[in-house]
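User: I'm putting together a teaching handout on how sequence relates to shape, and I'd like one worked example. Could you take Solute carrier organic anion transporter family member from Odocoileus virginianus, show the sequence you're using, and then write out its predicted structure as tokens right after it?

Assistant: Happy to. First the sequence, then the structure tokens directly below it.
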Amino acid sequence: MTMKSDPGPVGEELQVPDKDAKAMVGTEDTPGGKASPNPQNLRPSVFHSIKFFVFCHSLLQLAQLMMSGYLKSSISTVEKRFGLSSQTSGLLAAFNEVGNTALIVFVSYFGSRVHRPRLIGCGAILVTLAGVLMTVPHFISEPYRYDHTSPADMPQDFKASLCLLSTKAPASASSNSSCSSYTEVRHLAVVGIMFTAQTLLGVGGVPIQPFGISYIDDFAHNSNSPLYLGILFAVTMMGPGMSYGLGSLMLRLYVDIDRMPEGGINLTSKDPRWVGAWWLGFLISAGAVALAAIPYFFFPKEMPKEKQELRFRRKGLAVSDPPVSKGEDSSSEQSPAESLEKKDNLAQMAPDLTVIQFIKVFPRVLLRTLRHPIFLLVVLSQVCMSSTAAGMATFLPKFLERQFSITASYANLLIGCLTIPLAIVGIVVGGILVKRLRLGPMHCGSLCLLGALCCLILSTPLFFMGCSSHQIAGISHQPGTQPGLELFPGCMESCSCPSDDFNPVCDSSTRVEYITPCHAGCTSRVVQEVPDKSQVFYTNCSCVAGGGPVPAGSCDSACSHLVLPFMILISLGAALASVTHTPSFMLILRGVKKEDKTLAVGIQFMLMRVLAWMPSPVIHGSAIDTTCVYWAQSCGRRAVCRYYDHDLLRNRFIGLQFFFKIGSLACFALILAILRQQDKEERTKATIPNPGLQQQLLASEAKKEPEESRVLQKRKWFRKDKQLDKDYTK
């Protein structure tokens, strides 16, 4: 008896409302098509558990975002490896949004018509193929040559950049011999493969997040669904941080780790010619996505609705359940006007429309949603914030490398350990403030304005945290002049140095950098063995005071000590900007009609992709290219930039960020002004009485007075009659 009495009330509450669901689940999921009386037999496998689906989907989105963010962590390495400009690499980084944006609109059309878990699994497989395809350029290209001689012939490699009088003619001939039609075709093929892979990456990611969220919301308990989605988003937000961490590890390895030359290499990760194993990260993340995709082919199209709340929330939610059900019951009784508004809702119309009808209806509903001023301003503010985030995520590692002379691995480590975690903290803090303080639209707008203002203030010192470029022999730093090589001093005229070679050396006494040892007039090379690494020096340099020796590699930045304060300000600004994420999202949810919320959120993400995540990397890359003072040439075309004007780079990169932050601040200020105006209008309507309403109240009171007098008169007559009856009986 005690065994049955304890779970009895709970079992009755869970089983009675869901008889139909129980019968349906029992016939589908139990042997013989009969419903099982034991609730534990309703879910015979782990694939009928929504908790397991949340676990699998968290891992999948984590792996997917790790892959899509990995290219941003290795963007400067890909530029050096394949001779790309920042504009081209920015376009490459943004190209996965093209495939995603082109198909994301149709997700609202298909909805629950398809087998969502299997479609998620197919999308994950496509993401895996895209990751593998991104590594193909490494395998079809020749081994990386950090100068213009074959790495198989190491003695010639040692002498490639020296000042040798006997090699005047072959220097230019070797570079011309490497330029052929096959080389150019292969370069175009490599770039085309990477763009195709990025497009497939975007297409594969289309069904993963929307279908996963809707699947969780459909089959989780109503009280548990927000918790599951919170766990999903919390785990997912770690993906970008892990992508930078993976990039930091992979870029420490040499690019040709799978085909190292016999004699090894004499490069360190601090050498500007160093190229890390960028392709290895794509293989690792593709393998993670493939493993995470396997369970989705075993989940059912529809699983039993979760019936039990989580225990630690049961007491608090038991009180709030009746109003929800009451609201659901009352929502079923709608006025004809509300039903007409519902008919215009695209989310409800979609299941009854064909694809052609859906395409025709969508622009009309889009325009209707964009007419809402609060919605439009919130979306514009988020577009500005997203443009800032897209530019930073793509080119901040490269900016840190150039501005502070740090390695690509260390730059990724700083971003993955400082900026991304603080941005996550900012999003969580914004959500806590909205929930705990129960902020309304007015206070949400004030919080967004305050966060954007503080972010803008923290960005101001960044303009002054840097230093000018050190002197590079023979290169003009004036942006108005044609960048390139000038006439070198007479100390190296007899060397006949190749114009397209790049092997920098630094004269530390004068902080002058030379493009090659040949341009410094060096005629010999010495390798100094150190226990952990070997250091290369060049001697007998006619252009250096005392003849050298000069170490290989670029001169270190004079302000490399400012990299940590710079990153702290960047990270704090990212945290403050992230605080506005949840309040601005609530402004959309509370500002549009109830039936338009789903579509409004979809339009919001679509516009953010089209107006921010697609063009922003290209805009930032183009701005960075304008600060280049010396371009490498590859077969007569402009390839990767070797040297930038650091002051110009800092002012334009930070200035572009500053511009977008001002735009976001202006939008939030307009939102707050509109909300205050609306609040004033509501107050005036509440304080000023309506004359027509007053007359109706007076008329109703006038009618009530004679009725009340009649009732009182009847009561008096009734009492008199009773008194007369008593007297008569006596």
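A couple of points you could highlight for students: Strands lie at 471-472, 505-507, 512-514, 524-529, 534-539, 550-551, 628-634, 637-644. The two ends are 67 Å apart (CA to CA).
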